[in-house]
Amino acid sequence: MSVEAENAKEEIRDLLRGCLFSGIPNGSCAIFRVVKNECVSPRGQLLILKGGVYDPVVYDNDLSGSANRMSLSSTDYVRIIRKARKVLVEEGLEPESVKKVFEDFKNLRS
Fold first, then answer.
1. Is 28:42 a contact under the CB 8 Å cutoff?
2. Which one, of 39, 42, 46, 37, lies nearest residue 15 by Cα?
3. pTM for this predicted structure
C-alpha cells in the first residue's frame, strides 16, 4: 500500500471518529432518493468506510455538498469521500470508467 493511501485512510479514520451518523440525512442525496439503497447514501457510505471497507460504491454520488449542508453534525462528507476515492485510485481499485477518464486525460496531454 502506498504512503498516500495509508495517510488518506488515517485521515478518514480521524474524520469519522467524531461522526454522528444519525445526523446525516439521506433525503438530501439526489441519488439515494432515486436508487433507495443505503449503500449509495451519505450515511451508508460513511458507515462502510468506518468499517474499514474501501469500495468503489463511493463513486456512486455526485459530491454536490448537499450532505454537508444538511448534516446535523459537522461531518465533512465530501472531504471523506474524496479521500476514500484517493485510496481506491492509489490501490488500483477505482471503477473502470474512472480509469478510462484518467487514461483519456493522459492521452490528451501527450
1. yes
2. 46
3. 0.82
* Residue 76 near residue 87, CB atoms below 8 Å: no
pLDDT (tens digit per residue) in 55-79: 999 998 778 777 777 766 677 888 9
C-alpha cell at 13: 479514520
Q: Which three cell numbers stand for residue 42?
A: 451519505
* Separate counts of helices (H) and strands (E) for the chain: 6, 0
Is the separation of the CB atoms in 88 and 2 below 8 Å? no
DSSP 93-106: -S-HHHHHHHHHHH
Grid cell 484518467 is found at: 102
Distance CA 84, CA 78 (A): 10
